[in-house]
Every structure is written in C-alpha cells, then in structure tokens.
User: Fold this.
Amino acid sequence: MSQKAVLFVCLGNICRSPMAEAALRAEAVAQGLALTIDSAGTSGLHAGEGADPRAIAEAQRHGIDLSRHRARMVTEDDFMHFGHIFALDPQNLRDLHRLAPRRPLAKLGLVLDRVPGRAGQAVIDPYYGDADDFAAAWDDVAEAARHIVTYLLR
Ligand code: 4NP
Assistant:
C-alpha cells in the first residue's frame, strides 16, 4: 500500500472519476508531486468503455486528453494498494464500504471532504445533465485536486 497512490470512484467511471483522475494528475505534475492516480466505478455497467464524450470535451477545454481512458469496476485489490480512495458522492462511498474487504488498507472518504466548507457534499452526477453540469463537476474536482495535493504534501 502506498500513501502516494490515489483512486477516485464514481458509479460508472465514465464521467466524474475520470475527470477527477485527470485533474489530480495535472495538479500533481504542476506541483511536482509524484503520485499514482487511477479511477474506477462501483458498478461495472460501463466497464471497457471510454469516458463520456462530454467528459472528454470538458477535459479538452482544460488541455487534458481523456480519450484513452477505459472504465473499470473497483476491485478488492484496490483497497489494499491505494492509500486513499475518494468517492465522488455519498452513495458511492456507501457502496465502496460494501465492496471493501474486511480490513482495507486504504483510507476511504469523499473527494469534497478535502475542500474546506464542503465536507459531506457530492460532486453532482452530470450524466443526465448538460455541458454546464460537466463544467461544474470539473470545477469541483479541480478544486479538490488542489487541496488533495496540499494534503499529501503535508
Ligand atoms: P459517473 O456518471 O458515475 O460520474 O461515471 C454516470 C455514468 C453512468 C451512469 C450514471 C452516472 N449510468 O446510469 O449508466
């Protein structure tokens, strides 16, 4: 298990968690922090698929290529390998606890728990929304990424 390994988890691993993964990767590079970063879903509904085209477009607006992402479901190994697993919303955090092995090594929490004043909040699922909802989700995960890097550098 590595404290410098971070996994983001949403439902489908095609919208929010791939954006969170990309945002943290960019922030870690910008701040010179070496991290292992990945994302997964609590469901396997979209396993093997690419990111949602709207997520790819939103990442592109920030100069990040999400076109090579492939969705996967979270595994028991993830709980032993990643030091930190961040769920994108409370329902996925509950599902993560349900999917976890008896003694996970990873610390589980919400991605917005790291943002002052936003503990307990969800990054709203943009799947049934429009481009503005994807932009709002991006803003949330980018802000969280800045705080996560600070937290891991402490
Ligand atoms: P994500 O978004 O969990 O942020 O990847 C969703 C993706 C797929 C579905 C719901 C949310 N779906 O119902 O298929």
In short: The chain has a mean pLDDT of 98. Residues 10-16, 45-46, 125, 127 surround 4-nitrophenyl phosphate (CB under 6 Å).
